[in-house]
Amino acid sequence: MSRPLLSRKPDLLITIFFSLHLFFVTCVDCLDLWPTWLSSSPYLPFFTLGRVLRDFYLETYQDKLVLEQPDWFVVFTWCELLFHVPVCLLVIQGLVKNSPLVPLGVIPWTVETFFTTLLCVVEIWGWDDRSETIKWGLTGCYGPYLVISAALFVVMYGRVKEALVLQRQQLEKVKGQ
Length: 177
Known about the structure:
Layout: H1 9-29, H2 36-39, H3 45-61, H4 64-68, H5 71-96, H6 102-125, H7 132-176
């Protein structure tokens, strides 16, 4: 019988992270991709909260990537909607059920997230029309995704390695009988 999620602290933290990430991707980052009738509906308060958070973010950090939306950034946004959302749902479900397949969803997410976020940070530091204070603020917003994706890669790689070692040991045990 598998242990409940509440007793698996690392999995609980990862579940909380992916749940929050799902909200931010769906209701903040991808807000412009949804039809206006849907994202402006008074019956969907999470979009209203997303709009408030996004307006605060733009006012505070003046993020040109979100304000001007270069084509490559729009592609990254679509990747969030079409890749991150399904992965988040599968990872959350897998963690709740204690599935051994969770790393197979998380590892590709970590690689994609790390490199797309890194490109955004590099772009931010190339801007001539934003102060260093703004650039550091934006780095503080994007940077945690670099750290979290790298850390999750290490954790999930370790889980895959551990499972493969265990599988090898079991095969050797069976061959020895």
